[in-house]
Write a structure and sequence with these properties.
Elements lengths: L1 H4 L8 H9 L19 E2 L10 H34 L19 H30 L8 E8 L2 E6 L4 E4 L1 E5 L10 E7 L4 E4 L7 E3 L5 E5 L5 E7 L11 E7 L1 H12 L8 H12 L2 H4 L23 E2 L4 E2 L2 H9 L17 H11 L4
Parallel strand pairs: 1-10, 2-6, 5-11
Antiparallel strand pairs: 2-3, 3-4, 6-9, 7-8, 7-10, 10-11, 12-13
Helix pairs in contact: 3-4, 6-9, 8-9
């Protein structure tokens, strides 16, 4: 339940105050740059108190009870403290020389501070367990979209096994209808190195990606747009920059995206882009990256087959523009210190050609 209550809620409301007071919350999900195109709505505030997916709604319901109980405890404790401070304050110098009555072993007080907390914990366990069961044992429709999400230091590898699509850092899913056609997305979670945690607050709660273990979660978004998420489990130096975007689309737009992803990139025609492909092959790029339909078959880094249609670079650290791409290739540590993307000591001419080639991968 503690994981469900954590949120990136920047407004100073009572629910947000208690949610942040109860847990440490990574704020990296707010820091992602806006999408290059203003067409999709970007839900910039990763706010679990405004759920837009069925699992997120199931998490919000018990959180209200938790916050109310926390508020009641806070008011009682502060009320008793204020009462004691005023009731038993010294009324003159003589009071400072008199020891107040000492009372030990009050049976009523001890019973109160033992039984009441036990009852509160018992109620919270029942409510939390019901919500966990509703989410984990929810029936996944047979026609649900399946995604395999693999966490790396520090990026997300995304597979659509039934569609034959591999991409990175941006999940595309169709929107579901509250009173119509349900479109669930079943997400299989794995890790390639250390423990990561998938978290898109408005769509679902946190679920860990653990090495040598397969976990599952699901989402059912009711609104289109771009939802920001991030890794919620400290996974190394660039944990805060392991950002994630879930792009929820109308079914027809999602089908267009799928059709485009299945098509190999067009052959580069411009002279500079042709030279960039040669440089891409000649350098170490093909050892780590894959581009379908070419000799680049690396699997250690993100798949670049449709690189140019992605909105961000380096798992959300910068917009995917030629200017930022050139800086990234020139010095990856400028954006993501400690990343496994090496500084290839590229010349200005090589930087220009590689940027031109990568911009054709769409």
């Amino acid at each position: 339940m503690v994981r469900a209550v954590r949120s990136l809620f920047p407004q100073w409301s009572v629910p947000a105050f208690f949610a942040m007071a109860l847990s440490f919350v990574p704020g990296a999900a707010w820091a992602a740059d806006p999408a290059p195109t203003p067409t999709p709505q970007v839900h910039k505030i990763a706010d679990m108190f405004q759920p837009l997916s069925k699992p997120a709604e199931l998490i919000l319901e018990p959180s209200h009870l938790v916050l109310l109980i926390s508020l009641a405890i806070f008011l009682v404790v502060v009320g008793v403290l204020v009462y004691v401070l005023f009731k038993f304050r010294p009324h003159g110098p003589a009071d400072l020389l008199v020891e107040p009555p000492q009372i030990y072993g009050s049976y009523n007080i001890e019973m109160a501070w033992t039984v009441i907390p036990c009852l509160i914990v018992f109620v919270l366990i029942l409510v939390t367990t019901r919500s966990i069961v509703e989410i984990q044992d929810a029936k996944i429709e047979e026609d649900a979209l399946t995604i395999r999400l693999v966490g790396h230091q520090w990026w997300w590898e995304i597979h659509y096994p039934e569609l034959g699509i591999v991409t990175a850092n941006e999940i595309h899913v169709p929107v579901s209808e509250r009173n119509g056609k349900r479109r669930q997305t079943h997400i299989i979670l794995e890790s390639a190195d250390v423990i990561h945690s998938f978290w898109v607050p408005q769509l679902a709660g946190k679920t860990d990606l653990v090495p040598n273990r397969v976990n599952h979660t699901w989402i059912e978004p009711f609104k289109t747009g771009i939802f920001l998420g991030n890794c919620a489990e400290y996974c190394g130096t660039q944990h805060a920059n392991m950002l994630l975007r879930v792009i929820v689309q109308e079914p027809e737009d999602f089908e267009k995206w799928v059709a485009n992803q299945k098509q190999p990139p067009a052959e580069p025609r411009a002279e500079l882009a042709v030279q960039g492909r040669k440089d891409f092959y000649a350098l170490a790029c093909i050892n780590c990256h894959m581009v379908n339909g070419t000799m680049a078959e690396g699997v250690f880094g993100p798949d670049l087959t449709k690189f140019a249609v992605r909105q961000t670079l380096g798992a959300g650290v910068a917009p995917n523009t030629p200017e930022h791409l050139r800086k990234w290739l020139h010095d990856p540590d400028h954006y993501k210190e400690g990343s496994y993307m090496p500084d290839m000591k590229l010349s200005p001419a090589q930087l220009d050609s590689l940027v031109a080639y990568l911009e054709t991968l769409k």
